[in-house]
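Weekend entry, working from home. Most of the wet-lab plans are on hold until the incubator is repaired, so I used the time to fold the two sequences that have been sitting in the queue since the last round of cloning. Logging both here for the record. First:
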Amino acid sequence: NFFVQQTGAGATAPMASPFAPTAGQFHHLALTRNLNLWTLYIDGAVAALATNSVVLPDVNAPLRLGETEETGLLHGRLDEVSVYSRALTAGEVQAIHNAREQGKCIP
């Protein structure tokens, strides 16, 4: 499963989606949030939508990728991780996915 979780008192999971990656195969994951709409993209396509107004933790709090406090670690590699100051459009997410091994196209 892929999920976003806020830790601490009253923790919630604003988005969760089944995800069973194929071992040895590249996968592109992107998560956008525009107001209360969360969109998860897997390999350039929308995989899940969620509406949730949860307030995210302080921007100075640690950001964990591929790890949760409760369920363990990602068994794989992360490459070209980015955090943007706005929600990318579906077209921008698709362009990044389509860039493949040539590298990310900065929107």
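Second, folded right after the first finished:
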Amino acid sequence: LLHVSPIYEELLSRIMEKTGERREGGKRGALLEVAVELGSEAAEKLVSEVPWPEGALIVGIRRGEKEIVPHGDTQILQGDYLLIASSKGCFKDLNVRMRELCHARPD
């Protein structure tokens, strides 16, 4: 209708371009959902304050029954579920790094 690419498709294309990946045969990115635990590096911070790994695109936050479209000034709370988009090429490393950011650090 408007002859424009869907926003997440466009953002994913930019991520893939930055990481040097090519889209083959309609191959798309991957989505990851990670719970934010009490005591994690991401808990109680603003989205803009978290050192997100390269290739991560935070596309949503689920807080109880509420779905939130995050902005830089959105606070991440313990118990939130983050929905992250990435290219398939960096998914494995991204998965490890996101769990480090969102899971509680042992004392």
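Plan for Monday: verify the second prediction. The chain has two helices and four strands.
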